[in-house]
Every structure is written in structure tokens, then in C-alpha cells.
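Workshop exercise sheet. Pairs work together: one partner reads the sequence aloud, the other fills in the structure field after running the prediction. Swap roles for the next sheet.
Pair: D.N. / O.F.
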Amino acid sequence: MDDLKERRLKSLDYRIQELENQPDYFKKYGLRLLLIGIPITIITPEYTTRGSKNLIYYFNYDYPLCYSVIALSYIVLCIIMLVTFKIQDKKKIKKLKEDREMVDLFRR
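Structure field:
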């Protein structure tokens, strides 16, 4: 049974170290977000489905304003996503450290 606890402890240590050494999401996915955001910003104002009007119609054909609103919306969504991922990682690290302490406590 002691060997099982040791392996569990090593596994928890590895998972904590892996999460702490993980690169920042913005550095890791920044270029991808940019490459996805540019086509979204360009295509969205003109996109329409059957029986509906495109987005540019609601902006009275003011293209700069429409593109700006879409780009800012995309940026805000990306920032919310990145902050959420960072918070989730911190919570996961905290939970893993608590689990590690519990395993270490009962190991003795």
C-alpha cells in the first residue's frame, strides 16, 4: 500500500509541475488567435443567412464602425477566455496541492 501512495504522490507532483511550467496562453496561442480573428472581422459584417439581413445593414453601412465593433468584441472575448483559463489553472494547481498534502499526511 505504501508503494501505491508513493506513486500517487509522484503523479501529483508531476501534474503540479506540469501546470506551473506551462507557457502563458497568450504567448502560446497569440498568433492563432490573430490569424482566426482577421477573417472573422472581415467576413462577419457581410455574412447573412436565408431571410435575414447582414450585420452591416444594422450599422447603416458604416463599414469602419462595424469592423471596429466586431474586432473589439473578438478582442474582449479572447481576453475573457485567456483570463478564465488562467483562473482555472490556478484552481487546479491549488486542488492538486491540497490532494498532495492529504496523500503526504496519510503516508506517514
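Discussion prompt: The chain has a mean pLDDT of 84. What would you look at next?
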